[in-house]
Specification:
Strands 7, 8, 9, 10, 11, 12 and 13 form a seven-stranded antiparallel beta sheet that branches. The chain has two domains: 120 residues; 154 residues, no CATH class. The chain is of the alpha+beta class. Helix content is 28%, strand content 22%.
Length: 305
């Protein structure tokens, strides 16, 4: 029995972007502030060091080196608290609740200060439109704990399927994690060949899109696409990939976004959601890899022979 009988747990809970959008702003900006703390770590190719990692309670930075020791910031999405624990014995937290982004960031750095951590971050949000510096984003924002917990459970379920997909690739990958800039969980595969991010690419893109890659992931939606969905894209985009046949049947090519999409609502209708999601990841990878000329031997069974 996977869970005690008195616990209700739905791996793929109902989720609506229009309902979540207002809460998403506070959550996204708060997680960006937490994630920016990781930028003090040594740089890894394609930003491999920056994701937030999923935990059994929410999200974590993992240990961040500091003054000969380490500290960790956790975002508990069951008790809805942001915590800090250190290797020198400090432990403290603040509650996640309706507040402004400025209040969230102020509380975060108050905890860090109490822990004896002298940390600083760039207060400008990244990879969002109409960005307001964290300390100037003083408008009260809602925080719906039920929706946030559902969002996190979808991340956990997505990671569970991604781990199967991830384990079958023999080439270069990165650990599965939440990219706090774009607020999506992703798994990315590289074939070892350089790629051009484009002459007009910004600093983030120049260091993210400099190798050929295929990425799959899930995000909760945006104003431009107001539905939660799984996605897959190949970079650089191969010719005629939009004509590839992928599965499950409800997945499709979205020309405006240059990606394959599989809407979350369609997954929830499936009799085998995990199987259909794995099929989406694998079929879209195959579509990109075949058209981009990737080595077919990069994919194996995931198990030692």
């Amino acid at each position: 029995m996977p869970f005690p009988q008195d616990i209700s747990y739905e791996p793929w809970p109902p989720f609506s972007y229009p309902d979540f959008a207002a809460t998403q702003h506070l959550l996204h900006m708060g997680l960006q502030a937490v994630g920016k703390l990781k930028l003090k770590e040594p740089f890894e190719p394609q930003w491999g060091e920056v994701p937030l990692w999923l935990s059994s309670q929410g999200l974590t930075t993992g240990p961040i080196p500091y003054s000969g020791g380490a500290y960790e910031v956790t975002v508990d999405l069951i008790s809805h608290q942001v915590g800090c624990a250190t290797s020198w014995g400090f432990s403290g937290h603040c509650d996640l609740a309706p507040m402004s982004v400025a209040e969230f960031v102020g509380q975060l750095f108050d905890i860090l200060g109490k822990a004896g951590i002298n940390a600083s971050i760039n207060l400008k949000p990244q990879e969002v439109l109409n960005s307001i510096p964290f300390d100037q984003d003083a408008l009260p924002r809602p925080y719906d704990p039920t929706l946030v917990n559902a969002w996190w459970r979808i991340l956990l379920s997505t990671q569970r399927v991604m781990q199967v997909f991830h384990g079958r690739f023999k080439g270069k990958t990165q650990p599965i994690g939440l990219m706090w800039g774009t607020l999506d969980i992703r798994d990315v595969r590289y074939n070892g060949k350089p790629a051009s991010p484009g002459e007009k690419a910004d600093y983030i893109r120049r260091n993210a899109m400099n190798e050929e890659l295929i990425e799959v992931g899930w995000w909760s939606g945006s104003a431009a696409y107001p539905k939660p969905a799984f996605y897959s894209f190949t970079y650089p985009q191969p010719k005629e990939i939009e004509h590839a046949k992928v599965s499950p049947a409800s997945s499709r090519w979205e020309s405006a976004m240059g990606e394959f999409l599989f809407d979350y609502d369609d997954l929830r209708k499936s009799k085998d959601p995990d199987g259909d999601l794995l099929s989406f990841f694998e079929s879209t990878y195959n579509a990109g890899a075949e058209r981009a000329g990737w080595d077919p031997h990069l994919v194996g069974s995931g198990r030692p022979e």
